Amino acid sequence: MMKIQKEIDFILAIDALKNVQRRNYNADDSRRENMAEHSWQIIILAQILYPYAKNKADIDLLRVIRMLSIHDLVEIEAGDTFLFDEVAMIGKFEREKVSAQKIFGILDEPLQSEFFNLWLEFEEEETSDAIFACAIDRIMPFILNSHTSGKSWTEAKVTEKQIRSMLENAISRASDEMGEAFLHLLIKNLESEKVLKSFL
Q1: pLDDT at position 82, please?
Q2: Which residue of 12, 53, 127, 144 has the lowest C-beta tally within 10 Å?
Q3: Is the pTM for the entire model greater than 0.90?
Q4: What's the pLDDT at 200?
Q5: Alpha-helix runs per DSSP H in 106-168
Q6: Which of 99, 79, 104, 77 is nearest to 89 (CA)?
């Protein structure tokens, strides 16, 4: 057996991420994006929005990039769960944990545990790295929907209340500027009726 056989097995296994379709559409509105495209885009976004992060001194950008590059690999087995599908979100963590153990289990230690622990840290959203990474992951589809016809929202009749509940705190606690951009775009999305107004 080759020295790097398990690494080759892993990289071939995660090629399947290119086949996991997301609900979101690309910026030109022509088709839904796949999960690998989303992963690439959030890795770029993290680097360009890093200067705006709160607690920047506590954030290790390379760890954030590592986290963002692997956290969606679990969706190869578990599938993409639409953030605003409240029924599908039930049990999401448990499904994805089983998938994480399987996919990262292809690798030898210490990488197997490193990847699993990075995935878990992202999910728990407690460290400075994870809070920033999570905000980047949440704001990217929001930016895309805001600059297209917002089909993934209008198809699902997504409401202001749902968006605020799932995104607002996750984004604003990571960066004041990202929080400000979120509110600015949300107002525009309500005006254009991409998002249904919630009368709280």
Answers
A1: 78
A2: 12
A3: yes
A4: 54
A5: 111-124, 128-146, 151-156, 160-163
A6: 79
